[in-house]
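User: two proteins, same treatment. go.

Assistant:
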Amino acid sequence: MMTSVLHAQQIIQLFKKRDIKNIIISPGSRNAPLTISFSQDSFFNCYSIVDERCAGHFAMGIAQQLQEPTVLLCTSGSALLNYYPAVAEAYYSEIPLIVLSADRPPHKIDIGDGQTIRQKHVFANHILFDTQLEMITRSDQKEYLITNERQLNKAINTAISKHGPVHINVPFEEPLYNTVEQPSMDVKVMDVLKDETTEIPAAFYENWNNSKRKLVILSTLNPPVFEKEDIDRLTADGSVLVMSEVSSNIVHENIVWGIDTLIAPIEFDDDQIAALQPDMVVTIGGMIVSKKIKQYLRRFETNIHYHIGKRRAYDTFFKLAAHIKIAPRKWLHSLPVQTQPSTYQEQWLHHFKDYLSKRPAYFEKIGWSDMKVFELLFEHLPDDIVLQLGNSSTIRYAQLFKMNATHRIFSNRGTSGIDGCTSTAIGAAVGSGMPTVLITGDLSFFYDSNGLWNNYIPKNFKIILINNSGGGIFRILPGEKQEVYFSTYFETTHHLDASHLCAMHGFGYTKIDEEFAFAKAYQQFIHTNTAPQLLEIQTPREINDKILLDYFKFLR
């Protein structure tokens, strides 16, 4: 059974031919032709998520894991606007989403009809492609059929080839609920785009061969693009220093995996920081988390920065020479054998390992705090999980600890917002089918609490909520911390816990507020898989910033 509406049939038919299966539907009546057709066809995996804000991030989590387009479907009006945070995140994180929005017919826009806004081009600043389909009332309207066919194909091809969100606005006139047993027309697959390759310019090799200090930064890489032997090959060149971020999913003994741990001790030492200055920089991956490395590289006079990879390039350091759109492994295996003698890598790996050797002494003396919790977590997290990291403090603390090579690590670093972290993690758990753990902060968790309003949460899904009763990251930033306005409008202190939310949504719940209770609570939390679990870890509000900043002072 499917809708009798012809342009809706075109969507259903083409999605099936392109093997686009995962459909996240939010309730409404204007989208009934598509809702009926998707939900009554066993080819599609349909999910019902009431809150469009959560639905958008849930869809993004599935697409993030499967690396294929996931579809969002909503009714007309403000429902569509609630997708915007997820659309913006997908745009900057380069995750393929197809947004289908039902709409009133064009002649009913801005005449006072209910649940009607200007939906056409509503995501104009953060969308790779958008279109509005023609309404088709008769099967002999061949011109409209062909126009829609072309637009639908272009939308799908764009989402796949350019790795990001597209928007298809679909106007419907009543009646909305009429159905037929068979589609009234066929639809063609058009212009499936092929992978493009770009040659590496000669100037790159010239700069590479002439540089004694080459810095390679690996940021967000989902999924990882290098094997161990690739990094072996890259680090065999003594003039190459590799720095990686937690979201790179790269673990190797000859790379600097804690960028801030290396830079913080020398950032105010002009001679030392100058010695680290590279002759050229190569970036691979998405958005860079470390503020220290961005500020540091912007200070240099060199203008030789190359970005490698087929995804988008950003002039993060204001020095981008070229974007080489080639697969990173192909780039790596095209590199010449080392031609310049250099101790650049050896020197800075020595510094990094020296700082690491000092860390145990610091961790032994700190009390119960955010940093102590992260130390415990990264010692005890199980192998072979999808690890989702919340934004703000969570991802920054995670950068200070060596990652487990069996983990697949993700974070919403496109717009770096706290909205949608829980919903994305749940979508990722559904999409991957793997045990999934979300580590998140209290503001992020409570902001996205509707993410728990979801009937598809796997029983082995787990949330570690670090609750320091406010936006702890703001205590690390400059500003007077004792003023009333700070705690009210920046830190936004509160006295909430997650116990009632967990009871309402069927999560197992445990709360601890001291190190002595951690081991027993954690073991029970990690090994209970009869229902989703949440471990709430309460930490002191006013000492976390001092312990973190003192860590960097200690290394100096």
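Protein 2:
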Amino acid sequence: MNHFLNILRYAKPYKKQALGHIISNVFFALFGALSFVALIPMLDILFQKRETVITKPIYTGLSSLKDYYKDYLAYQVHLYAEDDPQKALLLVIGLIISLFLLKNVFGYLANYFMVFLRNGVVRDLRNAVYSKTVELPLSYFSEQKKGDIMARVTNDVSTLQYSMLPVLELIAREPLSIIFTLIAMLIISAKLTLFVFIFIPISGIIISRIGKSLKRKSDRVQTEQGTILSILEETLTGLRIIKGFNAQSKFTNKFKEASQRFYHFSNKLLNRQNLASPTSEILGIIVISILLWYGGQLVLVDKSLDGASFIAYMGLAYNIMVPAKAISRGLYNIKQGNAAAERIQEIIDTPNPLKDVPGAEEKLSFDSEIEFKDISFKYDKEYVLKDFSLTIPKGKTVALVGQSGSGKSTIANLITRFYDVNEGSIQIDGIDIRKLTTASLRQQLGIVTQDAILFNESIENNLKLGNEKATEGDIIKALEIANAMEFVSVLPEGIKTNIGDSGNKLSGGQKQRLSIARAVLKNPPIMVLDEATSALDTESERLVQIALENMMKNRTSIVIAHRLSTIQNADEILVLNKGEIVERGKHKDLIAKKGIYKKLVDMQSFD
């Protein structure tokens, strides 16, 4: 129930719709109860019950409310019908039709307001989950399956939409229907109504016991949905490798196993859920049977209740079963949706360690230097950087080289604040980057990674990712600096050309040059190049290297290099080994030392 209350928080912006829904439901419930009470005078006429009511009745208090209501209706019928039963019958039928019409008009209005409230909550909830997903640090996703996160944003929100959120409609309507109906029933017969008061808690206890395991079963179903999406995402991403290694059957079997588990858990969940309706139906018919027997005694033996009132009462008693069943079904749905709400809330409530500190400073320019001061960092248990210190003056290019796992890419992750250091600090112009707003810090940085990550958009939209205000002329200039205009100009629609999913319509070199053009168009003072040429062939590398040299002119650059031919002109080269600087200097000086750097160069055998 706590998770249901958390979901209700998202209904706050829709107070007007909620108020309209509640008011409409008040009248829906009121006219619903009155429409059954209005049957009494009609039944009196049909049963030819003759009571002479010539004078207008006088209200004497709640104890005689039922008799006052009946006498008042009879008085009005007498005035209109003038003792003509047919006229009287038409009048009462018109009254009943009017009451049912009003009931349904307000029922429609209640649903009308609820549409905006319910769909608004779903939209805001989905947006909140997505926003939090984008906001969370990269470390969170290294521990999660992509498919499971996708399942939470899509399937779990949809589960709430069709299980828990419909309960919002019941919160006002069904309790009000029960309350107004019970008031009418109490007025007609207090003795009979005692049976209803006994029935409601008993049925509630039975239904809650049946529904206890729904949350656990629903949780299993949603977990398997996440597993299925994870396998599907992995399959689509790695389809070339799967086919190349003839691993289709392995992945097919893996998918079938997850699908079988989903089938098994879904059957258990739905079969338990299907118990709700027959259980409440059986309980309802039992209480109706008891009421028929006891009410019959009051009419035939005790003579304290007339036949017309008893029939109207039975109509009200049956009418109360409809909202009671809806509430019991709603309780089931809350239990089922609780698992989905918990999984969604888990993402929303996940703390973000990289969140801006209160009063974080906006960094609008880069003026003097970047300084890594005695930083140490670990992803898990072992440190990948230990007491690392480095100062990069503005306008200088520093290259980081070393074997895989030496901590090169970690420097890029830390300067961009994808992770925070465990010890020490990283400062830009003497300000700790943890005291800057993350958005303003990253505005000072341009990033080009080994994997050129592009989106299923036009070239223009891909490049404008970091600079929405860029003109077509700015885009063409950036493409020229990135040495990319030569292939973009021959594309069918030029910069308007869609490059497909992940840019798969282009070659690796072309994608990387677009990635460089994107960084150029952003025009940041600091460039971070994380092995930007390591995945390319020699010809593509040459073209990309020219583009990189063009881009780095008059900029401060941190270059993480695997291919050492790309960093010979760096102002300083740092050789890393197990998270520590073991050599530093210019290319020629390091070659002359004949140390680790010289061995790395020789291994790559370049002139």
